[in-house]
Amino acid sequence: MTGADQRGGVPLRVVSYNVHSQRDDTAALAAVVRAVAPDVVVVQEGPRRFRWRQRSAALAESFGLVVAAGGLPSLGNLLLTSLRVRVLGSRCRRFPLTPGRHLRGAAYARCRVGPADFLLAGSHLSTDPAERPGQAALLRRDLAAETLPVVLGADLNDGPDSVTWRTVGEGLTDAAVAACAADRHTYPCTDPRRRIDALFVDPRVTVVGYDVVDTPQTRRASDHFPVLADLLLPVAG
């Protein structure tokens, strides 16, 4: 995808994917992502411990992409981009630690593709229902302070009926709802019955297409299905 679409925006193909710490079929994982040829991939449960830089780079290379942000500083949230996307800056955030629980966080990258700038963001919220609302509020605060159009991929560990989902999605467009696909479940692959993997975009972004990729390969690659969306980014000015 190159240049501006005739509908007045710049095309961007996005995948948001909880890769289950690469504990499953890694060859299938790489094949799944390469097959859809994304411009950006928002990874949850990416490398976050020993040799995380090398392992993050290897994961990106297996997808045919490069690392834009994340890894250990964002507790396994990883933002990957194709060479079509220019990364202008990045930062990571760690949520406060609850004793006895895993550290969680988020990754952000200010990006440019063609004449369009946007903020790519990724997060993975707690499995603990007592922690999630606070983390959701911090994530929402970060996004609300941003002036660029936001593209957020996240494993919220909560469904669309939850306070968590409503908090994070405040002021944003749920890509699945925009594409009339809110009935597509993302987890678990063995018996998909929940939509906990979200893709939110700024209202200035047009959702052209949305899919939860359910194939024999995706069922081997992780315990989550990847979420895929085709977007049109607004051109400033």
Overall pLDDT level: 95
What form results from the Cα inertia axes? globular
Low-confidence stretches: none
Biggest sheet architecture: 6 strands, mixed
Gross CATH architecture: 4-Layer Sandwich
SSE order, one letter for each helix or strand = EHEHEEEEEHEHEHEEHE
Binned, the helix content reads 10-25%
Overall CATH class: Alpha Beta
Q: What count of helical segments does DSSP give?
A: 6
State the separation between the terminal residues, measured CA to CA: 22 Å
What topology, given as strand order, has the largest sheet? 3-4-2-1-12-11
Radius of gyration: 16 Å
CATH topology: Deoxyribonuclease I, Chain A
User: In total, how many beta strands?
Assistant: 12
By secondary-structure content and strand pairing, the structural class works out as alpha+beta
Structure overview:
The protein has 237 residues and is α+β, with helices and mostly antiparallel strands. It has helices at residues 26-36, 52-63, 132-144, 163-168, 175-178, 216-221; strands at 10-18, 40-44, 66-70, 78-81, 86-94, 105-113, 116-124, 150-155, 173-174, 197-201, 206-212, 227-233. Strand 7, helix 3 and strand 8 (150-155) form a beta-alpha-beta unit. The longest helix has 13 residues, at 132-144. The model has no long low-confidence stretch (mean pLDDT 95).
Task: Please outline the helices and strands.
Elements: E1 10-18, H1 26-36, E2 40-44, H2 52-63, E3 66-70, E4 78-81, E5 86-94, E6 105-113, E7 116-124, H3 132-144, E8 150-155, H4 163-168, E9 173-174, H5 175-178, E10 197-201, E11 206-212, H6 216-221, E12 227-233
Parallel strand pairs: 1-2, 7-8
Antiparallel strand pairs: 1-12, 2-4, 3-4, 5-6, 6-7, 8-10, 9-10, 11-12
